[in-house]
Write a structure and sequence with these properties.
Layout: H1 3-13, E1 16-18, H2 21-32, H3 38-50, E2 58-59, E3 68-71, H4 75-94
Antiparallel strand pairs: 1-3, 2-3
Helix pairs in contact: 1-3, 1-4
Length: 95
């Protein structure tokens, strides 16, 4: 599974809310059980953000003293992740 597909699948099933992108990457790695490299993760985040599949990950909540890093799908991202999951199930069932 490529990094973008793994990012979408992980974001569909889990909430990632960390103090920075490095901690977000560590949480993503733990949840996905994947060996995606940090650079590939950053590229996947940038591609998903560019394509409107995730919301802006760096946020400053009202009253907060520092930014936090969130991984949250947009409605288009949810649809893409669900479509991807359905395709994965079909492939597994066909084997």
């Amino acid at each position: 599974m490529d990094a973008i597909a793994l990012l979408l699948a992980t974001a569909l099933r889990h909430r990632i809310n960390e103090p920075n992108i490095e901690a977000g990457f560590e949480r993503f790695s733990a949840l996905s059980g994947s060996a995606v490299e940090y650079g590939a993760f950053c590229d996947a985040v940038a591609a998903c953000l560019r394509d409107g599949l995730i919301r802006e990950p760096i946020r400053l909540p009202e009253g907060a003293l520092q930014c936090h890093w969130h991984l949250e799908l947009t409605p288009d991202g949810v649809a893409a992740a669900r479509k991807q999951c359905k395709q994965s199930v079909r492939i597994i069932c066909a084997l």
